[in-house]
Design goal:
The protein is α/β, with parallel strands linked by helices. Helices cover 33% and strands 25% of the residues. The protein has 13 helices and 17 strands. This is Cobalt-precorrin 5A hydrolase.
Length: 351
């Protein structure tokens, strides 16, 4: 993640100098600041159960943790909680005089590098970044995935391999389908070699392909498919439609349109279905959001789609899947609506 989440940043300080520095940062970034009872002042909260306990709780619940003090103290407190860079929060350490802002943990996916640079700018301090790709002025696969809001199969080993190839001077290509070019152009791609055509590759050691396509042509080198989450799905169904049926029909609709399931971003339906177990389980199984819209909101777009009087009598609107997909994609629909066994599924693409 390369963005700051102000709503979930916790800051900790143990000395008067730390409190003064934290107060400077409060004016630039919304955060919850903790200190001891003895140093408590306006805008700060006391430790709950002690410094270590409060810091550990923040580590598990916040997206970013900032500690003003010695790096060793922070390391000793959080060490038992560290899991991996894909799930741990960003951890930043700042010295009491505000000279150095250290990205300690989760520099890429957690956003610590970006946050460290931002805070260093506020304090006119030196950002301390040690990730290999950054110190070599290279992009990183995990950062590219974060910037594109993308997923891929076997993400962890792929990130390790591609980033190692980049810092080792290997030639890693980057190809993207036409619909993704503007998005990729806004990303950090330093070190990658731009590839225009997969059927005319330059000499490469591997290639990252940014696409929502289900399949790519066979290539004579390692391929790492990065799938941006751009596809939204509007679904209408009868009450108590089984999860297995919904899943099978959605998979078939994706296959019919040659779309990788990893490209899904959200499933949408009508408010009447907000507690529909099959839809909730479907969204959870795919790791996507489940959004619902009021009948009034759907009604504004139902004229684009065939209407069902039965659906209108039960839901208050003549069509559900089409208008839901229309709202989520701003009218950028894909293919034909699937209608089978009381289920309707409409796909859209959202940027």
């Amino acid at each position: 993640m390369n963005t700051v989440k102000p709503e979930s940043i916790a800051l900790f300080c143990l000395t008067p100098g730390g409190v003064a520095l934290a107060a400077r940062l409060q004016s630039a970034l919304s955060m919850t600041c903790f200190t001891s009872e003895e140093l408590l002042t306006e805008g700060f909260q006391p430790f709950d159960g002690g410094f270590a306990q409060t810091l550990r709780e923040a580590f598990c619940t916040c997206s970013s943790v900032i500690f003003i003090g010695a790096t060793g103290i922070a390391v000793r407190v959080i060490a038992p909680l560290v899991n991996d860079k894909f799930n741990d929060p960003a951890v930043i350490v700042i010295d009491e005089r505000g000279q150095h802002v250290i990205s300690l943990l989760s520099g890429h996916c957690g956003g610590a590098n970006a946050l460290a640079r931002y805070l260093a700018g506020v304090l006119n301090a030196d950002p301390v970044i040690t990730t290999a790709t950054d110190v070599n002025d290279l992009a990183a696969l995990d950062m590219l995935a974060s910037q594109l809001d993308a997923r891929m199969q076997d993400f962890r080993p792929a990130v390790k391999r591609v980033n190692q190839m980049l810092v080792s001077g290997k030639r890693v290509g980057l190809w993207c389908e036409a619909a993704m070019r503007e998005d990729v152009a806004r990303c950090d791609t330093r070190g990658f070699i731009a590839v225009d055509r997969l059927d005319a590759l330059p000499e490469l050691d591997g290639v990252v392909c940014v696409t929502t396509q289900a399949a790519l042509p066979a290539l004579p080198l390692p391929v790492f498919k990065l799938v941006p989450k751009r596809i939204v799905v509007g679904i209408g169904c009868r009450r108590d439609t089984p999860f297995a049926l919904l899943s099978a029909l959605l998979l078939r609709q994706l296959q019919a349109n040659a779309i990788d399931p990893l490209a899904l971003r959200a499933i949408g339906s009508i408010t009447l279905k907000q507690d529909e177990k099959g839809l909730i389980q479907l969204a959870q199984s795919l790791g996507v959001l489940f959004e619902v819209f009021s009948a009034d909101a759907l009604r504004q777009h139902e004229h684009h789609f065939p209407a069902s009087e039965f659906v209108r009598q039960t839901a208050g609107v003549g069509s559900v899947s089409g208008p839901a997909a229309w709202l989520m994609s701003h009218g950028q629909l894909i293919g034909e609506t699937l209608r089978e066994q009381g289920v309707t599924i409409t796909l859209g693409v959202s940027h």
